[in-house]
Every structure is written in C-alpha cells, then in structure tokens.
C-alpha cells in the first residue's frame, strides 16, 4: 500500500472514530434523559392507584350531597374534609412533598379545596398562583398533566389529575415530587454517566495519542527523507521510493555541478554549500510537482521526470531549461561572483531497461559524456546511441556509489619482488569493496559496470588520494592502477598532478600502472600528460602487456617506464613455446628501449626460475606474495 | 468522593438560596413598579437581613438609612412598632397579611411556589393604583 493510500485510510478511520465518538458524546444526555424519564414514569404509575382511590371516594361522598357544590359539600362536612385530607396525606413521603386538591373559581383563579399537609395546612379557598398553563389545560381538557418545574428549588415535577364529576372538572388533584427525589435519580445514574464519560475520555485519549504518534512518525520520516543542506529529498528517500514506482514511466536525468571541487577548494565549503543550496532551489523551482528531484550525493542530483504527456523533445527542453536556470545564476560570495553551470545526462528510453539501476547508470553515462564534451550541456540517451549496460554484474553504479560513501572501499597490496635479492621492490594497490554483508568483492564484481560513469571517476580519485596519503605516511612504494584513458580525464589528471605538486617527494613512491583499452582517441594528449608526469619524476607502468589490445606502437609512443608482462603469457611459459618466445621478445624489446620489466602471475618456483633465467628483474604472483591489507615487509627466499 | 459530593450539594444549596432571593426581588420589583408607576426609585426599609438583601437586589428600591425616611417597608412576620400607619407595608408572611390590615400585600412561598396577594380595599385605602399587571393577585375579600 502506498503512503498516500495509507494516509487516506488513516484519515478515513480517524473521521469514522470522531463521528462515533461525537455520537456517543451526544447520546450521553439522551441516555440520561431516558433513564430519568423511566424513573419518573415509575413514580407516576405508583401514584395513579392512590389518586384513583381518592377520586372514587370523593365522588362517592359528593353523590351523598347532590344539592351542594363540591366546595360547599366539603366546607359543610368537617369530618369529610378531614377524611379527604388524610387520604391525600397518605401520598406524602420523602419523594412526594405536597398533595392537594384545587378548584377553579368563577374568575378562573385556582383555590385550595383540600390540603394533604399536616403542617402549615392551607385554608380552603385560599388563592394558589400558577406559573404554567398545564393547570388550565388539565381542568379544561380533562387530561392529566405533568409539569417539569424549571426555576423552583424545592420541586422537580407536578403531576395534575382532573377530578371529573358529572362530565365536568370539579377540581385538580396535584402532587408535587421533590427535587431531592430527582437528586436521588441523578445520583443513581451518576456511575453510569461517569462510566460513559470514562469510555469517551479513553477513546478520545487513544485517538489523540494515535494522532500524536502519527504526527511524530510523519515528521521524523520527513526529517529522514530531507537533505539537511539543500532541503531536497535525499538518497534514503530515493531508496525507499524506487521499489514503489514504475521507473519506466519516468525520464531519468543525472545532474552534476561543473567544477564543484574547484569552488570548494577556492572559496571554502561554506561557499560550496551556498552554491549547492542555490542550485538546488533553482532546480526545484524548475520542475513540476509530479517530478522527483533528489540530492544523489555530493554535487550530484537525480531527477525523475514523469513521461506522462511529455515527449522526448519536451523532456529535453525541460533539461535545457534547468541547465539554463543554473547558468544564469550569479552567486555572490566573499566579494566574488560565482556563475555555476551544470552538466546533465538524460535517459529518455527507460522502458527498454529492466532495472532502475540500469536506467540510472545510463543517465550517469550520459552525464559522463556531457562532462567529457565540455560540460554545461545536456546529453541524452537514445536506444541507438549507447549500448545497454551489461547484465552480467554484481554491483551496480548505485551500489558502488553507496560503497564509496559508506567508506567500504579498501585496498590490498601485492608485493613486486626483486628476483635477484628477494627484497620487496614495491606493491601493487588492488581495489576491493567490502559488501554490506561483509564479503570482499573484487574489481570483476563492479569495475565493468561503473566504467564510463561518474562513480568510476569518484572511485579513481579516491584511490589516488588514499594511496598517495598512505605512501607518504608509510614511505610505501606503491603502484596505482589506472585506465589509460583516465589520464585524458581532466579531473583525474589534475588530481595526479596536484598530488605531486603538494608532495614532490611522492614521485619516488608512486607509480601509475596503466591498463590499455581498445581505443585511444587522443594519443597526443596522452603522450603530453605522460611527459608532464615524467617531468615531476613520476613513473608510468603499462599493465598486462602482451594481452588484449596492447601493442608495441603504443608503448613506443607513450614512453612508459615499466612493462608488466601479462599473466596469461607467464603462467604457461613452462609449457607453451609460443608464450616463451613472446616473453623473450618483450624482454628484448624492453631491454633495448631501456624499460624495466615485471613478470606477473608467478605462481610456482618453476615459473620463477624460468623468468629469472630470461633476465626479468622483478616478479609478482602468489608464489612470491599474496595480496594483503598490510603490505609485506620481509624479503622472499628465492 | 464524599467530600466532592458534599461540596457539590453545598454549592447547589447556596445557589438555590440565592435563586429564591432573586425570585423574591423580581416580584417585589414588579410590585413596586405597578404600585408606584411615577417613581423610578423608592426608598425602602427592610426589617431583617433577608429583606434588606431582597431590597438590594431590586432595581426600583433603594435602601434607606433610617426607617423614618422610607416610603416602602418590607417586613416579615411582624410590623415593627415604630412604623407609622400611613406607610406602605409589604410582607413576606401570608399570616401577617391576613392579620394586619396595614399590610397592603404579601409575597410568600406556598407549596414551593412564589405567590403574591393584595387586598383591593387596602390598596384603595392607600390610594395605590389597581394595576392590570397585579389583577390576578388582587383579592376582593379574605
């Protein structure tokens, strides 16, 4: 269930709960009234029989005096008066405080006929003021009336019964129920009322706690998902979002601030942060609500543009607009105006890819292209322009990037041995990744998949920095592996040079081992850069010579210092005459061109002896020393 | 729990007392308005604290400092000796109204209800108007 659906359901449940609760709350007075009404009716029912007896008796007595009016009859017969008074008096109890009979005179005033009180008995004929029309109604309509007293402190109810004699009312029997009686009712139902209020309070408390909990959860989730610096959604948000969305319905763009490292180095991190904030704001303002922009890490942003009703052309124009929004920014810092730019790589054909990580990698590759083509531009992927990434992978770009950020990149060092003395000549630094479950992953598990991506560059820069620092600190001679085209990359080359500039003595410790590729586009630039490295005193080795795309012409043109003969030739040198001849030719070539030779993959003593016999001065392989985290210091017994 | 109940009942009782005094004040006010339509405020004298309390709660009566300067007397079971015969006396005791001819009217509680009574000839003796508002409460004879 998506977050939105869950929130709607919770809101619905909340509304239902509030409605039920409000209904319950409103029902409490109704329940109370019903209970009191029932108690009242019980009281009235118990009175009825007594009143009926009184009524019957009165009429019986009046029948005996047919020539007198009822009031005359009562006034004339003292014993009858007393008898009727005592009958009314029998009704009086703690609940019924007054019982009396009234008659209405010819002016419509009610007057006492019989009073059941034992003390302060009201004389016959005394006026009785009424405050309610119910009295007249009972008298005229001959219907009993129940009056609920509102303002009288002593009385709760008055029950009035007309006495009908010869088809007309001759008086009203009135019975007043005390307010004390009503208070007893209230006290009786008080526990029930309290219980209802308790239930109400309990449910209300539960709802409030639930709301508070949800609010806390909501805000903490929000905090977890928001990048503190830019206010954009962060990587964690992306990780949680990706499984829930169909990435194929989005165009994916990777955006990177050009020369951001320079901004940080030149103006400091505070200014760098300000630039990040300003650019993030500009980008955020340039997208629609249905698009998703996240800070992917460092100066990189990832943008998912909903492809619904958005053509490729429109998507590209959005990207161009974003690029332009950044280009026109002028950020003032330290009295200087910074005019940042961004490069954008876009994947427009995400539907062709099986996973979002592949789709992101394509966008990253396009970003790499944008960077290599001069920056401050948008490069996009179409299914014909770029080959799809290999499926034979273990770690994707996303995972490698996480490994870099989580500092799970580490190095093992394999010794290169002087075959004459057995001493350690130097070490080759071999990059490894510690997987999240603690396993050691080798370049074969991730290198191919990050090739031509920003992540590859990040890893290379990290490798240079880490090994330079370690070489300096431990005076460790170390070979660092690079792709030959890394030298063409401005950022990487700048990093290499800056390392030498900052620590000139480092040149005696660091060797750059270059691995050839199928295609070297800019051999002239490559040669120039190698010359620059040489000018600092740095050394260049060519790795895996004799395999793949290596050729003598490259070596001649590039003027490398060390040739490392590929393991595929060395490992069979004892069995393959062809391998032996090739190695001999390489050694002859290296000797004549004054280059140092290293034989790789020496895994047995036999191989070592042959290599030594060929005059190769240095060797590397499991027989001589396996890669380990701590560099080997002891010499090897040959 | 019992303490709370006691407090609640005490509060209710005091409210009821003040409610009864207020009802009495309202009725006395109404009576004074009907009997003295030309006077906005009338100096009144109360024989007990209860009667003075009623006077203080009316809008038409103002308590006089001395009995002699009062124009309206509100009394209980008896009429104090120093009150002249000519003064308008109003009681809260029905028996006094029946017994003392100087008393022009009474407000009293009967069967838990407020009641008001006047005698026509006494009103006429004091030249007090027989207002339509009081008609239901005026008796021709006792």
According to CATH, what is the topology of chain B? Rossmann fold
Main sheet: strands, sense, barrel of chain B:
7 strands, mixed
Structural class of chain A: alpha/beta
Mean pLDDT score of chain B: 85
Terminal CA distance of chain B reads 52 Å
**What's the overall geometry of chain B?**
globular
Report on the biggest sheet of chain A: 8 strands, mixed, barrel
Q: Enumerate the spans of chain B where pLDDT stays under 50 for 5 or more consecutive residues.
A: 1-17
Oligomer: heterodimer
> Strand sequence of the main sheet of chain B, in spatial order?
2-1-3-4-5-6-7
Write up this protein:
The complex is a heterodimer of chains A (638) and B (142). In chain A, 47% of the residues lie in helices and 21% in strands. Chain A has 638 residues and is of the alpha/beta class. The longest helix of chain A is centred in the N-terminal third of the chain and has 62 residues, at 3-64. The radius of gyration of chain A is 51 Å and the shape is rod-shaped. Mean pLDDT of chain A is 86; it is low at 384-393. Chain B has 142 residues and is an alpha/beta fold. Chain B contains 4 helices and 7 strands, in the order αβαβββαββαβ. Chain B has helices at residues 2-35, 49-56, 94-99, 120-125, and strands at residues 42-46, 61-63, 72-75, 88-91, 103-110, 113-119, 138-139. Chain B has a 7-stranded mixed sheet with strand order 2-1-3-4-5-6-7. In chain B, strand 4, helix 3 and strand 5 form a beta-alpha-beta unit. The relative contact order of chain B is 0.13. Classes of the chains: A alpha/beta (638), B alpha/beta (142). Chains A and B meet through strand 1 and strand 3 of A and helix 1 and strand 6 of B.
Outline:
The complex is a heterodimer of chains A (638) and B (142). Chain A has 19 helices and 22 strands.
């Amino acid at each position: 269930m998506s977050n939105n659906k869950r929130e709607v359901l919770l809101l619905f449940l909340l509304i239902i709960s509030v409605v039920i609760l409000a209904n319950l709350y409103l029902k409490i007075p109704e329940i109370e009234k019903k209970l009191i009404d029932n108690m009242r009716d019980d009281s009235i029912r118990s009175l009825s029989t007594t009143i009926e007896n009184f009524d019957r008796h009165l009429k019986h007595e009046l029948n005996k005096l047919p020539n007198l009016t009822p009031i005359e009859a009562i006034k004339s017969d003292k014993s009858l008066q007393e008898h009727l008074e005592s009958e009314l008096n029998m009704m009086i109890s703690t609940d019924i405080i007054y019982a009396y009979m009234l008659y209405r005179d010819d002016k419509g005033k009610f007057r006492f006929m019989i009073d059941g009180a034992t003390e302060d008995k009201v004389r016959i004929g005394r006026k009785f003021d009424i405050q309610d029309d119910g009295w007249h109604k009972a008298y005229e309509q001959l219907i009993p009336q129940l009056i609920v007293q509102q303002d009288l402190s002593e009385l709760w109810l008055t029950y009035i019964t007309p006495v009908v004699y010869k088809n007309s009312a001759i008086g009203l029997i009135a019975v007043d129920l005390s307010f004390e009686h009503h208070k007893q009712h209230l006290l009786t139902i008080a526990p029930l009322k309290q219980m209802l209020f308790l239930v109400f309070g309990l449910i209300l408390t539960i709802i409030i706690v639930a709301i508070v909990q949800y609010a806390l959860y909501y805000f903490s989730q929000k905090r977890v998902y928001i990048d503190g610096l830019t206010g954009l959604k962060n990587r964690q948000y992306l990780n949680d979002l990706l499984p829930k969305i169909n990435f194929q319905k989005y165009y994916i763009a990777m955006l990177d601030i050009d020369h951001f490292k320079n901004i940080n180095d030149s103006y400091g991190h505070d200014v760098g942060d300000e630039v990040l904030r300003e650019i993030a704001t500009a980008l955020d303002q340039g997208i629609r609500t249905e698009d998703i922009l996240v800070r992917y890490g460092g100066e990189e942003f990832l943008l998912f543009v909903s492809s619904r009703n958005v053509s490729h052309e429109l998507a590209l124009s959005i990207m161009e607009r974003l690029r332009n929004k950044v280009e026109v920014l002028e950020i003032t810092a330290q009295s200087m105006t910074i005019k940042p730019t961004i490069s954008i790589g876009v994947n427009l054909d995400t539907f062709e890819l099986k996973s979002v990580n592949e789709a992101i990698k394509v966008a990253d590759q396009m970003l790499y292209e944008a960077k290599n083509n001069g920056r401050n531009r948008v490069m996009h992927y179409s299914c014909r322009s770029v080959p799809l990434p290999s499926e034979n992978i273990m770690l994707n770009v996303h995972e490698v990037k996480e490994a870099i950020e989580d500092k799970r990149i580490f190095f093992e060092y394999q010794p290169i041995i002087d075959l004459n003395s057995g001493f350690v000549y130097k070490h080759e630094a071999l990059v490894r990744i510690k997987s999240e479950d603690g396993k050691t992953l080798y370049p074969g598990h991730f290198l191919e998949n990050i090739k031509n991506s920003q992540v590859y560059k990040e890893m290379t820069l990290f490798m240079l920095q880490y090994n330079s620092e370690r070489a300096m600190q431990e005076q460790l001679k170390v070979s660092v592996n690079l792709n030959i085209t890394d030298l063409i990359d401005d950022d990487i080359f700048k990093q290499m040079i800056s390392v030498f500039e900052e620590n000139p003595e480092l040149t005696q410790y660091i060797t750059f081992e270059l691995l050839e590729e199928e295609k070297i586009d800019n051999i002239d630039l490559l040669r120039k850069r190698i010359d620059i490295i040489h000018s600092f005193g740095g050394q260049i080795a060519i790795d895996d010579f004799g395999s793949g795309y290596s050729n003598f012409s490259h070596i001649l043109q590039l003027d490398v210092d060390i040739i490392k003969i590929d393991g595929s030739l060395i490992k069979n040198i004892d069995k393959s005459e062809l391998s032996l001849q090739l190695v001999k030719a390489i050694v002859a070539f290296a000797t004549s061109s004054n280059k140092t030779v290293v034989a790789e993959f020496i895994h047995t003593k036999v191989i070592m002896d042959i290599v030594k016999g060929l005059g190769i001065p240095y060797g590397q392989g499991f027989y001589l020393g396996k890669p380990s985290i701590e560099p080997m210091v002891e010499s090897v017994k040959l | 729990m019992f303490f709370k109940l006691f407090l609640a009942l005490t509060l209710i009782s005091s409210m009821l007392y003040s409610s009864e005094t207020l009802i009495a004040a309202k009725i006395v006010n109404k009576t004074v308005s009907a009997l003295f339509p030309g006077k906005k405020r009338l100096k009144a004298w109360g024989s007990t604290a209860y009667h003075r309390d009623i006077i203080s709660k009316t809008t038409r009566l103002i308590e006089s400092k001395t009995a002699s300067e009062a124009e309206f007397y509100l009394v209980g079971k008896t009429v104090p000796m120093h009150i002249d015969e000519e003064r308008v006396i109003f009681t809260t005791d029905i028996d006094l109204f029946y017994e003392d001819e100087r008393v022009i009217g009474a407000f009293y509680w009967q069967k838990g209800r407020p009641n008001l009574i006047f005698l026509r000839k006494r009103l006429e003796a004091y030249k007090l108007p027989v207002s339509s508002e009081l008609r239901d409460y005026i008796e021709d004879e006792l």
